[in-house]
Every structure is written in C-alpha cells, then in structure tokens.
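Translate sequence into structure tokens.
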Amino acid sequence: KLLAVSGDGDWEKFCAQSKHVGHTKKLSDALESFQKDVEAASKLARKLILQIQKNRGSELAKKFSEELERAFEGVPFEAEADSLYELDQEEFYVRPTNYSLMKGEAVRPFKIVLLDDHKLTIEMPVLVFAEAEATFGLTIPINDVDGRDSLGMGSATIERKTDLEPTFVMEFSGENLSKGEVDELELTMVGWPSSIDFGNIDRDISSDE
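Result follows.
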C-alpha cells in the first residue's frame, strides 16, 4: 500500500476513497509508520525463519525443502575440474541435501522486500549443503596422418559434496500471515556461484576404469 504525504485536501479525499493509497499530513508520521512496518515485518520474518530452521517436521519446513529443491532446477551452474585430459562438460546437476538459515546462533541477515496484509517477501542468503554430479567428455590431443587433433576417450561421471551460499527471494503468503500462518511459500534463486570446482578428477577417472 502506498502512503501519500500531503496537506492538500483533494489528496486527503482521494486517499480516503482508495484501497491502495493511505494519507498523512506530516512526513514525521509517515516515517514513524514506515519504521513500525519494517520492525513488524522483521519480527515476523525471524519467526518464520526460526520455524523453518528448528522445526523440520512442520508443514512450513516441508514446503521450504520442496521449494529449495525446485529452485535448483534449471540453474546454469558450470563444473570446473583439473585433469590431464581435455574436458567437455556434458551433464551437470546439483541436488540440495540440507540447509542452514542461521549464522552461528543468529538468523542470517535478510532484507525486507515487501509486506502487506497477506504477503511478506524477503531476500536472504542460505547455506546449502548439496551433492553435485558432472559428466565430462574426455579427449587427448593428438596429431595423426588423418589430420585429427584430438582423440575421444569416452566420458566420466564425477560426484562431489559441496557447500553453496546462494541468495533467495522468499515469498510467504497467507490469510492469517500476521499470526505466522503460511498458506503458500515460493523460493526464487537470484544469486548463485557461477561454477562448482570438482578439483583434480584424474584419480576418480582411474578408479572407474
């Protein structure tokens, strides 16, 4: 909802009839109202975050886990690795296995994006524990009489456990949201590491042969 600050009578009449625009004559009152809204939103956000983190059996935590897995689908991660072979990434996926919304004993820092009667949107980083799997095509450089400069040596699938800290926009909504009752939760990943390092994979390749 918008808040208009004006001493003009026409604005006051317009806002009185509007469902989307409130009115106040003093800027100080507007700032006080805004501060109260931010404090209320932060208090609600912390309550919901702690519920997700500490009560993994709750419906909200289950929704979070489902949304977290969905949010990873289609994210354009890239795999990096060292090898004596030349590597060509063929397939790659990352599956979250656990998460933490805390940093030490405190809730991770977050920003309030939106708050209204039935919706709270925040942005925050999440520590995600994940399993990553990449398939690399393997080639070696050659120089033969047929003019080929490389020779295919098959492919190798490598698995790694990794910790990531992507940033998410979390949107909580519900008819009784102010009481901490969430009907819907949606996660959108808005920031992520550009690549995941698999290290040197020659030992993994040798063990598969």
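Note: The longest strand covers residues 86-100.
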